[in-house]
Structures are given as structure tokens and as C-alpha cells.
Amino acid sequence: MSDAQSPKRKPHELCSAKRVEIKPGSFGTLMIKEKIRVPKGKVVLFSIRKKFGDQGLSLGASFAKYPFEGHLELQLSNRATTLAEINADEPVINFVVVDAQPDNIVVE
Question: Where are the domains of the chain?
Fold first, then answer.
């Protein structure tokens, strides 16, 4: 990850035996390793895993137009006052693909 709006720094690429440290108050872009497919009529819901939420990391709003196929980029920020760490090949987010307009939701 790179510090926000820093043209001199390249994003870190995580591979085995590497980790990235996210300083307090900084944010960057996280590209998920898995390639996903979101068919028409579906939407993807994201959440950060508890381990990382407990470190102060949070996800910003990210959207993908459907249909979509590829590697999604998500905005990640450290809102804590301490350093957060992500190790390579460690799951950071959970996501689920659901109907964009399910019939069973009632708004009153």
C-alpha cells in the first residue's frame, strides 16, 4: 500500500514472506487476489475480517458495475493510533454475492 496521493511511492505488492505495515491515519488501495465474477442482477457486499477491524483497519465504500469479472480494488484505511499489519496470503476481507433486488426485503 502507498500513502495517499503520493506520486513518488509505488504500491507494495505482497508475496510470500512479505507483509505490509499501515501507519495510523494512512490509507491505500487493496486489490483482491481472487478473480471474481458478478453477473447482471447481483451485487457484492464486503466486510473486513475481525482480526483487521480490531487493529483499526476499515474498508471504504467500493462498487463494481455488473456484470463484472476481474480483481476488485478496495479502499483500506487505518483509523487506529497504532500500526496495523497485513501478511501476504492472509485473508483480509469477506465478501458475498447476492441478488441486487431480493423479493424478501420489505421497507416500511
Answer: 19-99
Residues whose CB falls within 8 Å of the CB of residue 82, separated by 6 or more in sequence, listed in order: 24, 55, 56
Does the pLDDT value for residue 49 go beyond 50? yes
Neighbours of 62 (CB within 10 A): 14
CATH number of 19-99: 2.70.40.10
Rounded to whole angstroms, the Cα distance separating 30 from 15 reads 14
The reply to whether the predicted model has a pTM over 0.85 is no
Instruction: Determine the Cα–Cα distance for residues 104 and 92; give it in Å rounded to an integer.
Output: 30
66: cell is: 455488473
Report how far Cα 13 is from the mean position of its chain's Cα atoms.
Answer: 15
